[in-house]
Design a protein that fits this description.
129 residues, alpha+beta, Ribosomal Protein S5, domain 2
Length: 129
Amino acid sequence: MEVINALGRRKSAIARIYVNPGKGAIVINNRPMEQYFPMDTLQYIVKQPLELTGTTANYDIKVNLDGGGSKGQAEALRLAIARALCKIDKEAHRPVLKTNGLLTRDPREVERKKPGRPGARKRFQFSKR
C-alpha cells in the first residue's frame, strides 16, 4: 500500500494527513498526539474513526495541522482520518463512518462582525430617552 493523503477542515482549521501501514503512531506537527492534544476528550475525538473501524494499530499517521483552535483542529483531523480510511477500503469502512456522521464536513463558520455594532448579532442597549 502506498501513502494515502487526505484533507479535513473545521472552522478555520486545516488538517493534511499522510497514512502509512504501521503500528498506530499519530504524529502531529512533529510531536506525538498525546503531547499536542493533552486533553483526553480531544484525543478521543481524533481516535473516533480508527476505533469505530477497528484499525487503531494498523496505520501510522503523520499530520500537518494549521489554523483554528484546539477543538477545531481535533475535529478537522477526525474528518481527514475518516476520509483517508474510506480511500483505503471503501466497502468496509464507509457505512460505519457514514452512520456515525464522521464523513460530513461541519459547515458552521464564525459570522462576521457588522459595522456599527459590538459583534455579529449583538446591538447596543436601546435608550428611549
